[in-house]
Design a protein that fits this description.
Layout: H1 2-9, H2 14-30, H3 34-81, H4 91-108, H5 112-121, H6 124-132, H7 142-149, H8 156-167, H9 184-195, H10 199-212, H11 238-244, H12 256-280
Helix pairs in contact: 1-3, 2-3, 3-5, 4-5, 4-9, 5-8, 5-9, 7-8, 9-12
């Protein structure tokens, strides 16, 4: 019987079951043969849902393809811009941050295109700082990032959203000003960037960055006395940077997905520091 075949195909659909009950009640009130009425209506509903599913799949595929096209447009210029960068803010950091951001977006939502492009361009200020020798905040890099975005097919509205994410991605709840934004795209970018700052990768990047900036590995005589964090201020040593920033990032995560990912990375850093101090003091 056609009705049974239809019901088998849609047995897991809550929406269809509700429609099915409605048709049953309607057929009873109108004294119409229920199986016949149900077959007609349910067949039409399935056809409609199938078309909608195909349309959604096409739209998703199209949006992913467009995102990949934009990233491809940016990649050559980013490679040139970051080719001399070796302090931990290189193109591989950008790609890892992009991948983490997309992982978070799958769970937490937000505009995938905006998140992806923001992640791929979030550290342009590091290049400006290296070239000028002066501190450069993300906000200071906005004009340069805008020049890059103007070479893509993004709309003006999309560009503004990307610039917003980049401008505010270095906010911390342990800094003097705290956090001031709450849009999901910026929060995801913050989490993605911070996740790549901790764990095994974070340890490697930290020693690489501090070494490139002539910061010594460890000065035992210097206390851990920074109450608030400021990107423009250097720590006395690389190990000090763990305590002023890295070990605080686990509790700085915005999304539930990032909090879970940060937990294991944080534990790894704690184990590393214990081993570091044991070796430094000759215990091992």
């Amino acid at each position: 019987m056609l009705l049974n075949k239809i019901l088998l195909r849609i047995k897991d659909s809550c929406v269809i079951r509700k429609v099915y009950c409605f048709v049953a009640v309607a057929s009873s009130l109108l004294n119409i043969n229920f199986p016949l009425l149900a077959e007609v209506h349910l067949t039409a509903i399935i056809r409609h849902l199938s078309l909608g599913l195909k349309e959604n799949l096409l739209n998703n595929h199209s949006s992913v393809y467009y995102m990949e096209e934009i990233i491809h447009q940016l990649e050559e210029e980013v490679k040139v811009l970051f080719h001399n960068e070796s302090s931990g803010h290189d193109i591989y950091h950008l790609k890892r941050t992009l991948n983490i951001a997309l992982t978070l977006q799958e769970k937490e939502g937000g505009d995938k295109l905006i998140i992806a492009v923001s992640a791929f361009l979030h550290d342009v200020h590091r290049i400006i700082q290296k070239e000028t020798g002066k501190f450069c905040s993300p906000k200071d890099s906005v004009p340069k990032v805008k020049e890059i975005l103007d070479k893509t097919n993004l709309t003006e509205e999309q560009k503004e959203k990307v610039l917003h994410c980049i401008e505010y991605h270095e906010e911390y709840n342990f800094s003097e000003n705290g956090k001031t934004v709450n849009d999901i795209e910026t929060l995801v970018l913050q989490d993605a960037d911070n996740l790549d700052t901790i764990g095994a990768i974070g340890i490697g990047r930290t020693f690489s960055f501090e070494g490139a900036n002539q910061v010594t590995m460890w000065i035992p005589e210097k206390p851990f006395d920074r109450e608030t964090f400021d990107e423009s201020e250097k720590d006395p040593s690389t190990v000090h940077h763990f305590y002023s920033k890295l070990l605080k990032l686990k509790d700085n995560m915005n999304t539930e997905t990032a909090k879970k990912m940060a937990d294991e990375r944080h534990k790894f850093m704690e184990l590393f520091l214990q081993e570091f101090f044991d070796e430094w003091n000759g215990k091992k």
